[in-house]
Design goal:
Layout: E1 17-21, H1 25-33, E2 42-48, H2 49-65, E3 70-75, H3 84-96, E4 103-109, H4 111-123, E5 130-134, H5 137-143, E6 148-153, E7 156-163, E8 168-172, H6 181-198, H7 200-209, H8 224-242, H9 259-268, H10 275-293, H11 298-310, H12 323-329, E9 342-344, E10 361-363, H13 366-376
Parallel strand pairs: 1-8, 2-3, 2-4, 4-5, 5-8
Antiparallel strand pairs: 6-7, 9-10
Helix pairs in contact: 3-4, 4-5, 5-6, 5-8, 6-7, 6-8, 6-10, 9-10, 9-12, 10-11, 10-13
Bound molecules: nicotinamide-adenine-dinucleotide.
């Protein structure tokens, strides 16, 4: 037998910039003209049916007018499109239109677009570059940054995908003006999560400023300075975690705060409850358990509940939900190890608990979880 070793050591620099501001279409164009996408001669703008009409069609027109080769690929808006089927349809369209290795993808939209288009770019022609142009607060807060891309399958969300970092991210908060108050609230849920897990000053700042995003009557305010600060803080907090643990070997689990119950709840509610709404209830569930375990005090608990309520988010498990079914569903969580449910917990406000062996998650038994779920039932 002969042996041949393939020497293949990798050193990767995936550093990229995030631009935060209003109306960044011109910045995107000048970045491309100034060589952001080296070696790329064709641009595939990927978007959904809502964002196409609102923003992507005009962005395509300005790229084409500037002499760039670009084409728009649109799929129906909604979580249902984040599937292997839509990805295959887009791939076929790209091939038919002669896109190849010298192409790049520009994802224009919310988290569904960035997850799907990022995954498409990561595998098309064995990987082509992609840019994220984020148009929702949730994408700005979470989905467009961090390099996780994926599609859903009928029985699992976000399970099929890869890590593929964008070349640049644009967070255009002028586009938030066309979002519904409900979508803004969902972005605020992830924002509050970030404050809970990493930054007590940001949490206090949100307590003071949340009504400059959404008034207490639910109408949009979207103060520029406040929106910019929220976008910036979200990036800062998410990156302080991602840069230390890109592949989620331990620390990145903390970004899952509130998602153990949140993900189970949204699936059980058949997505009638939006992700951010379910995460809000999930944050309350971990806070309730954390209070019982002594990781936070009663004042912290009240502050978390009030901030979520002032953001117009739900803080109770909707009454039609069967608690036993919710409990059973927790076993599909990605943190489950050896058949045991695990949670990550905040430590007071602005820090995370670390357990035996430095692990950021700990096992929680059904007997421990049940009273919390019962207490939080509406
Ligand atoms: N990859 C990650 O790290 C990560 C993190 C968090 C969430 N996600 C994923 O993100 C998705 C949720 O993100 P989302 O809430 O942005 O969903 P989304 O992309 O479906 O957007 C929500 C709705 O708003 C519409 N929309 C988008 N921008 C708009 C605008 N400016 N004006 C008006 N309407 C607009 C969309 O067409 C859609 O109907 C989920 O699939 C979730 O799994 C991914």
């Amino acid at each position: 037998m002969k042996k041949f070793t393939v020497p293949l050591k990798k050193s990767v620099d995936d550093t990229y910039d995030i631009a935060i501001g209003k109306n960044l279409q011109d910045e995107l164009l000048s970045d491309i003209q100034n060589g952001l996408l080296k070696g790329v001669s064709k641009l595939a703008l990927v978007t959904d049916s809502n964002v196409s009409r609102l923003y992507a069609e005009s962005m395509l027109a300005s790229l084409v007018e500037a002499g760039l080769q670009a084409q728009l690929f649109t799929f129906p808006a909604g979580e249902g499109s984040k599937s292997r089927k839509t990805k295959a349809l887009l791939e076929d369209q790209l091939i038919k239109n002669r896109f190849g290795r010298d192409s790049a993808v520009i994802a224009i939209g919310g988290g569904v677009v960035s997850d799907l288009a990022g995954y498409l770019a990561g595998t098309f022609a064995r990987g082509i570059p992609f840019i994220n142009y984020a148009t929702t607060l949730l994408a700005a807060a979470d989905a467009s940054v961090g390099g996780k891309t994926a599609v859903n399958t009928p029985i699992a969300t976000n399970l099929i995908g890869l890590f593929h970092q964008p070349v640049k991210v644009y967070i255009d908060f002028a586009t938030w003006q066309t979002l519904s108050a409900r979508e803004i609230r969902c972005g605020l849920a992830e924002t509050i999560k970030h404050a809970c897990l990493a930054d007590s000053d940001f949490f206090s700042w949100l307590e003071q400023n949340i009504t400059k995003v959404l008034a207490l009557d639910g109408s949009l305010v979207l103060d520029d300075t406040v929106c910019e600060h929220i976008a910036h803080k979200n990036c800062e907090i998410k990156y302080s975690v991602v840069e230390r643990d890109e592949r989620e070997s331990n620390l990145r689990q903390v970004l899952n705060l509130g998602h153990t119950v949140g993900r189970a709840l949204e699936a059980l509610m058949k997505y009638k409850m939006l992700h951010g709404e379910a995460v809000s209830v999930g944050l309350m569930a971990q806070a309730h358990l954390a209070l019982r375990f002594g990781y936070i005090d009663d004042n912290d608990y009240q502050r978390i509940e009030s901030l979520l309520e002032n953001a117009g988010l739900p803080v109770r498990i909707p009454s039609p939900v069967n608690i036993q079914k919710l409990l059973d569903r927790l076993y599909t969580d990605k943190k489950v190890r050896k058949g045991k449910i695990r949670f990550v917990f905040q430590k007071g406000i602005g820090a995370m608990m670390q357990f035996e062996g430095g692990n950021y998650s700990r096992e929680v038994t059904e007997a421990e979880i049940l009273p919390t779920l019962q207490a939080l039932k509406a």
